[in-house]
């Protein structure tokens, strides 16, 4: 998959692009930190097999071309939620934060309880306000956690907001919840634990043996994260696949609904065996290895995007410990 294809796929799957609240990738590690002094935006991850031919268009130029097209669509239909959401996230990718905030605000009027709007809007408003999470961003984050109390990014940002307010006890409450969401021995749990330890609130069961525990579990974290999917495709479904687009994806069973990793290909190319690996991860801030409970799904659409109105079939199933799952395709 080329870089451009991955950018488009990430946007179409409506994966939020965070400016100050993302997991900042450093080398092979993925520490859970917030960069509040300077805004940064990462493009979707590129595997070692991705190639960039000579004279290839600049990815940022490609995003700006999509912005121009989306701006025209929004001008024609100001109440199309999907287009507003895509446009806001495209603005985020080129670091146009004022325009992103304005579009998120318009989308929020249409869907006032959408976490897909509330969370990135809180993020971008904080960027505009020099990293401050204590104004309207705080209120938006509170609303996110009222809707779903286990959204990792909201918990992380709320902890930082409380620290800005010098409320370490409240910060510890949010970070402790976040600490136990991440799998034991994961890099993200360790980083959250470091923050808790810095304010004297690290859970007692983790205080002393944390380093030994992490080192013992390291081999498990380095193990193959591949997800093996077999498909039972009914004959009548096979006959309907031509001209469709198939999305095979893996996502968390809790928290944010956006896929962590995905493949996309024409329906006529659908086979009975598919594997999703780390190379299929859509964003650098979300890793298969850090998700304890994964759900695997297949979606078949009449269009090449993920517009639910064009959906022909969808089925999802929890991933067992064997990391092997069978999905029945029948529509």
Number of domains: 2
The ordered string of helix (H) and strand (E) elements is HHHHHHHHHHHEHEEEEEE
Q: Report the strand count.
A: 7
Strand order of the largest sheet: 3-2-5-6
Mean pLDDT: 76
Low-pLDDT stretches? 12-16, 22-56, 208-223
CATH top level assignment of the largest domain: Mainly Alpha
What is the 3D shape? globular
Structural class: alpha+beta
Q: What is the straight-line distance between the termini? A: 28 Å
How many alpha or pi helices? 12
The biggest beta sheet is recorded as: 4 strands, antiparallel
Helix content percent band: 40-55%
- The radius of gyration over CA amounts to 20 Å
Which CATH architecture of the largest domain would you pick?
Alpha Horseshoe
Q: Classify the fold: give the CATH topology of the largest domain.
A: Serine Threonine Protein Phosphatase 5, Tetratricopeptide repeat
Q: Could you characterize what this model shows?
A:
This protein has about 325 residues and is of the alpha+beta class. The chain has 2 domains: about 5-220, Tetratricopeptide repeat domain (Serine Threonine Protein Phosphatase 5, Tetratricopeptide repeat, Alpha Horseshoe); about 225-330. It has helices at about 5-10, 60-75, 80-95, 95-110, 115-130, 135-145, 150-165, 170-180, 185-200, 205, 210-220, 235-240; strands at about 225-235, 245-250, 260-265, 275, 295-300, 310-320, 325-330. The protein has a 4-stranded antiparallel β-sheet, with no helix packed on it. The chain has a 3-stranded mixed β-sheet with strand order 4-1-7. It is globular and about 60 Å long. It starts with a helix and ends with a strand. Mean pLDDT is about 75; it is low at about 10-15, about 20-55 and about 210-225.
């Amino acid at each position: 998959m080329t870089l451009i294809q991955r950018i488009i796929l990430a946007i179409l799957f409506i994966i939020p692009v965070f400016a100050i609240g993302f997991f900042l990738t450093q080398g092979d590690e993925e520490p859970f930190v917030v960069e509040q002094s300077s805004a940064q935006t990462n493009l979707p991850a590129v595997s070692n097999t991705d190639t960039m031919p000579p004279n290839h268009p600049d990815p940022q130029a490609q995003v700006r071309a999509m912005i121009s097209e989306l701006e025209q669509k929004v001008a024609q239909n100001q109440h199309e939620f999907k287009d507003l959401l895509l446009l806001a996230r495209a603005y985020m990718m080129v670091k146009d934060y004022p325009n992103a905030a304005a579009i998120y605000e318009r989308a929020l009027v249409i869907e006032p309880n959408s976490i897909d709007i509330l969370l990135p809007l809180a993020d971008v408003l904080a960027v505009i306000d020099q990293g401050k999470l204590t104004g309207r961003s705080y209120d938006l984050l509170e609303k996110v956690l009222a809707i779903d109390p286990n959204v990792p990014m909201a918990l992380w940002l709320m902890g930082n907001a409380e620290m800005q307010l010098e409320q370490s006890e409240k910060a510890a409450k949010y970070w402790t919840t976040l600490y136990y969401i991440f799998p034991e021995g994961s890099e993200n749990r360790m980083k959250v634990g470091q923050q808790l330890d810095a304010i004297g609130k690290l859970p007692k069961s983790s205080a002393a043996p944390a380093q030994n525990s992490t080192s013992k579990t390291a081999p498990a974290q380095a193990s193959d994260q591949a997800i093996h999917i077999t498909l039972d495709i009914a004959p009548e479904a096979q006959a309907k696949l031509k001209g469709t687009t198939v999305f095979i994806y893996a996502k968390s069973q809790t928290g944010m609904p956006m896929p962590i990793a995905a493949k996309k290909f024409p329906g006529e190319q659908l086979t009975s065996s598919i594997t999703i690996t780390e190379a299929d991860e859509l964003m650098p801030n979300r890793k298969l290895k850090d998700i304890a409970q994964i759900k695997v799904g297949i979606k078949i659409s009449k269009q090449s995007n993920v517009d639910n109105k064009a959906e022909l079939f969808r089925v999802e199933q929890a991933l067992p410990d064997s990391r092997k799952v069978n999905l029945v395709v029948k529509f």
